[in-house]
Write a structure and sequence with these properties.
single chain, 78 residues, mainly alpha, 79% helix
Amino acid sequence: WVRLDREHNGEAGGQTGGGALSGSDRQELAGLRRLKAEMAGEHAKEKAVWEKERAELEMEREVLKRSVAGWVKDSMNR
């Protein structure tokens, strides 16, 4: 994205000053990296919650399957 932005702004070769970032570019990059890290942390927490919920639902499903199998078996023996 940086290359495309620089090309859009008419900077030769997609680089300025030998490829060095300006101070504002460095600040923006640092801010974006912080935001990415925060979002990754939030995603990891949400994923853990989803996985826990999924495991609980799987256990409930197994209990229901066994219950139904038991009811069917009982009804067949009558």
